[in-house]
Design a protein that fits this description.
alpha+beta; 2 domains; two-stranded antiparallel ribbon
């Protein structure tokens, strides 16, 4: 999920703190400006009501939050509809 309320500066600082990668706000802007429209289209699309097969997966990461490392999960859901297409 995108944090749409974060500024480019906030994202740059977050990337530097989390991964130790120095990047410019212009680079962050370039990447997010390309991803956010695609994310909004995906977010507004509806899923079929019938998905015979559904996979739910979680990957747990340790992240630094308020000076402490905590475990957070990133969830992925994949459905296969009756036409055998992934959703």
């Amino acid at each position: 999920m995108f944090a749409l309320d974060m500024s480019y500066r906030d994202i740059r600082i977050h990337v530097q703190e989390m991964y130790g990668i120095e990047t410019s706000e212009a680079t962050i802007k370039s990447v997010t400006d390309q991803l956010i429209p695609e994310h909004k289209v995906w977010q507004s699309s509806s899923l079929n009501k019938l998905c015979p097969f559904i996979w739910l997966e979680a990957i747990h990461y340790k992240i630094k939050e308020s000076g402490q490392y905590v475990s957070k999960a990133v969830y992925t859901v994949l459905g296969i509809n009756i036409e055998s297409s992934k959703e």
